[in-house]
Amino acid sequence: MNLPIYLGCTTVLIDKFTTQYFIESIVKNDVTLLPAVPTIYSALLQYPEKIEHKLRYSVSGGAPLPIKIELNFEEKFNCKILQGYGLTECSPIVSVNPPDKEIQGSVGKPLPNTDVKLMDEQGNIIDKGIGEIIVKGPNVMMGYYQLDSSEFFINGYFYTGDIGKIEDNGYLYIVDRKKDLIIVNGLNVYPSEIEKLILTYPAILECAVVGKNDENRGEVPVAFVVPNKEIDKKDLMSFLRKNLANYKIPKEIIIKDQLPKNNTGK
């Protein structure tokens, strides 16, 4: 909110979310920039009518944006979605895709004066591979109020709790939340990898993969899916077997009418 206030722009606040009310607010107020979480973009795609709007750019954050939602939204609304990454402790932006140099699937490059590095499980800073994202810069908080925050920092870098990778071109990619990691027979399974694949299957609107305790393998993935029409679970499972290593295949697929979300739509 600070940037539009600094620039003297009008900010439209939404006190509740329904697709109809949200779209009416965009159209009525001539909104040109839309920041939202992926579930909002997914909901907007279900709106059946053509919308006359003045959106120039949309920005997605808060959770990984499925490529299918990104492409479908850009086609329906003729408006590019730029993925970014941040967290409250970083005021809250760490990186964002430049409008003229966007790379789909990435969350862009770090902001100026913001240093982003990766740390492996042994606590070593690494240049390549996958590791926990750590951040240092003027946008990073000093600490949590009335709490000893030293355990959340290393040499001035803040532990984000997010797993990512940085390509040679400097673009950052989010792999998953560290706490969401599923360990199957000692092998790391990132739920987001399975979720992204399931969302490419026809008729799947939403998906969430979680770990479930298993006597033999420690943990196993379980997938919760929200379809917009009846699906064949056996066919979906066959699709996953063709595209995933055996240990990453969900032990169970559970069909739901909707997935639980918090007030921000995550």
Description of the structure:
- This protein is α+β, with helices and mostly antiparallel strands and 266 residues long.
- It folds into 3 domains: 2-78, Rossmann fold (3-Layer(aba) Sandwich); 88-95 and 105-177, Luciferase, domain 3 (Roll); 181-255, GMP Synthetase, Chain A, domain 3 (2-Layer Sandwich).
- Helix content is 20%, strand content 31%.
- It is built from 6 helices and 16 strands.
- It has helices spanning 2-7, 19-28, 38-45, 67-77, 191-198, 233-243, and strands at 33-36, 57-60, 80-86, 93-96, 109-110, 115-119, 125-126, 131-136, 153-154, 157-166, 172-177, 182-184, 187-189, 204-214, 218-227, 252-255.
- The strands form 4 sheets. Strands 6, 7, 8, 9, 10 and 11 form a 6-stranded antiparallel β-sheet that branches. Strands 1-2-3-4-5 form a 5-stranded mixed β-sheet. A 3-stranded mixed β-sheet has the order 14-15-16, with helices on one face.
- The chain is globular, with a radius of gyration of 20 Å.
